[in-house]
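Repro:
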Amino acid sequence: MNSKFDVIVVGGGIAGLTAGLVSARLGRRTLIHTSELLGGHLLSIETIEGYPGHPDGIAGYELCPLAQGQAADAGAEFAMSRVEALTCDGDEWQLATGSGDYAARAVIVATGTELRELGVPGEALLRGKGVSHCASCDAPLLGGKPVVAVGGGDSALQEALTLADHASKVTVVHRGEELTAQESFRRRAAAHPRIEFVASTEVVEIIGEDAVDGVRVREAPGGSGGDGTRDLETSAVFVYIGLRPNAALLADRLSLDSTGRIPVDTQMRTGLRGLFGAGTVRSGAAGRAVAAAGDGTLAAIAADRFLADGDWPG
């Protein structure tokens, strides 16, 4: 027999935690269900900047437990297990999981994203042996050693700044001619004496047997320097080349956008009655923690209105 809720939030990142908090505060019996650690990617971020109320930034591993505690205090319930299926039976959504089945009239999908991998030789072999996605976790182990960060966006530069507090040198390797990170990160990274940039370059191999010894790089397609390869010495490789949305749960029910994300309207409503999307899994997401929290708020308010009046576009 299904455990019945008013609202089920699928996903435990900042969008999901905020949605659960707001929904519970609105008086709805709310379940936050996740198959990953509560907090998601933000748990590995040393400093989240631009989040209101925290002028000096806040660590993700501080922000997310605070949001979890607020949601629990408001009355939200939690479950953690593998999600097997999300189906609709009449006016009710049913969530099948490894820990049991749950049902609700409104479901907010806030399953977030996963980090893309390079897909090059040596990456899988050396994962956890120098190949990492978490600077705050592993940087303290790399004092006085050279490291490589791969990527040119916010995450790559933010993590490079964290790494630079410990490593002897941080080499940022990125495929484009220009960085895509926001100006504040570009300015601070460019001014840091231990950070240098290698543009229009891609990693083609991670070198090492029991630990990372280096990376092999070459000119990125479209560059002007030729196709030769060269090796960079490094003790670790931190990969931040983009995100892949976790929308497979709905791939056979909705037409996803060109990036694989869930299309929503301005109230976070999808094309399926009672189903909402929030955070980085939804189409057009800004990719910022504060925006994800805003998505969760909007989705929870819209779900509450839907439960009250049953109104749905179309």
